[in-house]
Task: structure prediction
Amino acid sequence: MLEQVKTAVSYGEEPGLRFAVMLDGRGGCRTLNIAQACTWKPGDGLVWLHFERDHPAAAEWVNTKGDFDPLVAEALLAEDSRPRVEPVDDGLLIILRGVCAAPPEEAREPTPEIDLVPLHIWVDEHRLVTLRDSGHYITALRDIRQALEKGKGPRQAGELLALVSDKLVRDLEPVLDGMDEEVDELDDLIFQGEASEVRQRLKLLRRRSVQLRRYLAPQRDALNRIEHDDAPWLTERDKLRFREVIDKLMRFIEYLDAIRDRTSILHDDLSTVIGERIARSSNRLAALAALLLPPSVVAGLFGMNVGGIPGVDEAWAFLIIVVFIAAISAGTLWILKRIEWL
Result:
């Protein structure tokens, strides 16, 4: 039996281990260190271990002390992170994606790209093992751990897994809301004539929507597979929770599709605005050329260095030519306005 731990292990104190807790079955937990985690036995209670996937100490624990099937250990440490679920005996190998956030102790400027980081999970009746890459931070896990420390957390493995999935999907909502607000802002900018600013932002927004869609669709399928799994530790209440999470994720995917469609419409609007601007510029240049053409022709004729040019010896000839050119230009201007070129 594990000894009672009176002092909590600080965040990141153990190499490769972010935290280890044992659930008491009443919504609370107690914190373990790595030595106690290594001596844990299934009869001691439900334990939750959270590692840095790319840390050598975590890899050593998974390969030598985790008592995993070799294929499961390889999948937990693999860089391939497409969302999926694989049942193995009475457990589940799960890979999901969550929104990466800056750790509380670090201030970081927001990036234009949405960082969906992989979360590798092994879960059975007696333990939940999660692994994520170092340098990434998933608020969903922090929130669940804080709830456990307050005695308001999950009580068994299925409930814990359902809560992790729910929190991962929950963190997508502010991301999609921000993207929707950005679409509204770009829509206003386009019709205010700020097309040059919109072009790059619209490109990044469409890239983000494609990136999110790429992972959310298989994540929906993965959660759907968990819901229909017949693992004995998954209760009907847990499956109902997964059904709600899947419904929420499906709404988010539809929301994302709507954002993608709106960006396509904005792209068409932007092309239309740019095309109209080019057309106006072309019309103005053509109108200017039409206005200058008659004076150029007259000036060319009377500027030839040949004999027989009328008015050479008349003082009033230049004035007549100027009046003639002005009349032709006025007539040309009237015609251009009549055909709505100006």
User: Anything to note?
Assistant: The chain is about 55% helix and 15% strand. The chain has a mean pLDDT of 81.
